[in-house]
Amino acid sequence: MVDDVAAVCEEQPGVSTLRLDYDHESQAPAIVEAHATSVEGWLFTGIVPYMLSRDADALTRPAAFVDYSGATLLTALVRLQRQGEDVTRLSIDTLSTADVNATFTEAGLPTAELRTLPYRPEMTSKKATAFHRKGSAHAVITCLSSVHEALRDELHVLRLVPSVHSVRVALRQLMLTAEGQAQEDAQIALGLIEVANEEGLLREATALGGTLAAFRGGTHLLVTTRGPLHDATGGFTGLPMLARLAAQNDVVHVGFGLGRSAAEAESLARRALARARRIGEVAAVLSLRADTDIVLESVTSAPAGTQALSVIARRVGLSVSTLEKLLEARAAAGDEPLTTREIADRLAVQQRTARRMLHRLELAGLAERTGNLTSGSSGRPLTLYRLTL
Known about the structure:
About 2% of the residues have low confidence. Helix 2 packs across helix 3, helix 6 crosses helix 7 and helix 15 packs across helix 16. By secondary structure, the chain is an alpha/beta fold. The protein is 43% helix and 20% strand.
């Protein structure tokens, strides 16, 4: 399936593919996390691996999936009819009832004896297999390779194979989304910097892929774009240049503004600089639209454990009490890696919430992934984290 979809994608000029297959749909989130930095976008061969990856907060790049309704479903009906099957009595998983009925109605086929199991977050391959077995008089159309493997010796089962048209539509959608992301990364980012000693400023601007100019009243203007600023700040969490400038200046105030125009970015940068002045002698703030301000903490070479929890809490957007519970969990584990489930249990939160917290800590350099642990069920593997805060 992956090879077939990739071959269609590679027909598009300028598109190259990384072919990543799996033995079971539940492995998709771990594959996405492992290769996140190698791709510009994700095209899933179906909705299930896409939804599993999305619900696991694993998607950091634009993503789309191949739709199996419409042309793909019609192709399957033709194949079944040629094999002598009654296409008015079918058991179909994953596709929504509305999409199935619309396709059948368009083809002039009745829908009264169709059995459908639309995709839901709680749906598993075991549940889908059980659903089809209850309708043993119906031929089966499945979107899941695991269901096809489980039923192929029991029932007449056909695994949907996406049509070329469906793949091209999904690829076009993905490319448009990726282009939009690229435009967002090209947003203007203006920084207003107040320091007495200018030494090193030009080097810092170059590291951000930007340019430096005098602004007014001793303030310096740094011009760059969102993409380099996002990468240099670890996802808008910390500003390494703040510590380096503070080593040469008693007072360092930095205000960054992100806008759709130079005028908007400058206005936001002014607001950010004003807030940085109110925070203290050394501070950096990023201002976004919709009155959103983010304090960018100084990234130093000191061990994370020596930092005050209040500073870390402000940096990663978590409460001090949450960080204290994480420290207790680390101590109880003897500094051994912990699974996302163990963290969730310790904090009395859902695993999804725990993954988000750990992702923030990882971006800030306060946690690191050490691998995955198979959960022993059909769910996604549990990610192992070592806490370094």
